[in-house]
Amino acid sequence: MTMKEEYRDLYRKFGLNVVYYRKRMRVTQEGLAELLDIQRSHISAIELGNVGVSFDLIFKMCEVFQIKPKDLFDFRD
């Protein structure tokens, strides 16, 4: 999923939240990729804010992290 340049900062913030919840679970990118049934390189790209994410993947992340979707979008400065 390509992104608009004007939203790059928001993609990065989303990616940082994915990193936070992944590390809180004490799981590697490879481990999270297995849980989400995607490639590790896709996890890396999400965490770096280089790709967009589908709602399906967001909802699956929330199941794995045991959080609400809004938690992934709670961007702190």
Can you give a write-up of this model?
It is a single chain. Helix content is 62%, strand content 0%. It is built from 5 helices and no strands. The mean pLDDT is 95.
Keywords:
77 residues; mainly alpha; globular
In summary, what is this structure?
The protein has 77 residues and is an all-alpha fold. It is built from 5 helices and no strands. The chain is globular, with a radius of gyration of 11 Å.
Helix-strand topology string = HHHHH
Structural class: mainly alpha
Question: How is the quaternary structure best described?
Answer: single chain
Mean pLDDT figure: 95
Broad shape: globular
**Beta-strand segment tally:** 0
Helix content: 55-70%
The low-confidence parts are: none
Strand count, sense and barrel status of the largest sheet are:
none
What's the topology here?
Blueprint: H1 8-24, H2 29-36, H3 40-47, H4 55-65, H5 69-72
Helix pairs in contact: 2-3
